[in-house]
Amino acid sequence: MALGVLVSGAHLVFVLSVLHRRRVLFAALVSTAVFPLAITGSTAVVPEVTAELPGADALGPWIVLGYNGLFAAALLLAGLVADRMSRTTFFALGNIVVAATGIWSAFAPDLGSLVALRTAAGVGAAMCAAGGSSMVLAVYPPEERRRVYGYTGAVLGSSLALGPIAAQALMALGGWELVFVVPAGIAALAVVGTIGLPSLRTRQTAPFDLAGALLFGVVIAATVIAFGFALPVWTNAALLAGAVAAAIVLVRVERRAAEPAIPFDLLRIPSYRAYSLATGAFMGMLVVGLAVLPQLSAEHDLGAGGAGLLLSLLTIPSTLLPLVASRIARRWARQLVTIALLACVLAAIALQTSDSVPLLFVAAAVLGVSLGLTEGVPDGQALQHVPYQRGGAGAALFSTTRMTVETLTLAAAIGTITLVDATTGLIAPAAVCLLAAGVLARGR
Description:
By secondary structure, this protein is an all-alpha fold. The protein has helices at residues 18-52, 62-82, 87-105, 111-139, 145-174, 176-193, 210-228, 233-256, 264-267, 270-299, 303-315, 317-320, 322-353, 357-372, 377-383, 391-419, 427-442, and strands spanning 5-8, 11-14. The protein is built from 17 helices and two strands. It has a two-stranded antiparallel ribbon. A hairpin with a 2-residue loop joins strand 1 (5-8) and strand 2.
């Protein structure tokens, strides 16, 4: 049970028993594993589902677009709501939505129904992400958050690394339906983990800026969809025009709001801002690397085995090193992240300029180790500045920044690959990593 609140520095946290705190963390970690599986799974099944279910083929990509778009759109709103109601209940409801839509997706009669279900699942995922972070920040004081986000980094890194393999294995084992059912079962396990936990609710007297949260969601969702996916030119133009219009209205709304939905005060904290950019830079490097390394392998005639080894060097460290990273980050977090960003830059340059096959593997390993040693570290460093009463909103803004930077980096990389060739694909993420290193080095 909750025993009250405790002052920790400038922050308040709920005082729970050790068992209840561990259960809060367990539920949040289980839920964290679902999101990468859902993304990789949805992406993997699009061709098969489009061929099997009735409906226009153009709806196929929206299985992924709907999920990503609504996740981005709902994230800040979910964070604001999580901070104003029972955090535990809100988190559980989000996982129930994810579980229910996952099971129903397996029985979708047509593409339109499946797109609608995946869109609803994106809202549920936003509730899970915001609610889980809000719970964790409510029970762990700032000085313990580095360790906690080390566990989060380990789970997230493992899910990202193993997600594509798991999706393919599930499709081979039980067809595309199983790709939706298994993450649904994991989300249900997270719901079970919340049974008997205290509500973790605090009274909020500030007015609720619904208009600001909705407009912010429109801006982010339109930007993510427009830059993150290969859509027709007219569609992208319409999305970007909508994003610009919504952003203009958003600025006016936030200036007049007594309590703006966007926590601008957090963005004014140099460390929060710098680590938000850094985590987006790392994710951009990972996503682009997953696309570029197989192409570089083909150019060097390394075959399927060589491509698999390159991808393993890039991804496996993220399953092994996050807990080590959390220990290093206790004293040298800024140095660790800055060095890792610069190492990513140097590795990207080596991959793009060298014809040496051994150097290709070394550079891929350097990327993998740099990403693995920083998985979860920026999160813990940034979110230590967030008071627990605003944990949902603070974590949502951090995640939104990461997603936006990742999406824009991917869009820039796709542009250079299209205009030149695969060897230029890492220019954009390298530039973003260099920028993030500079911002982090200056921030205090």
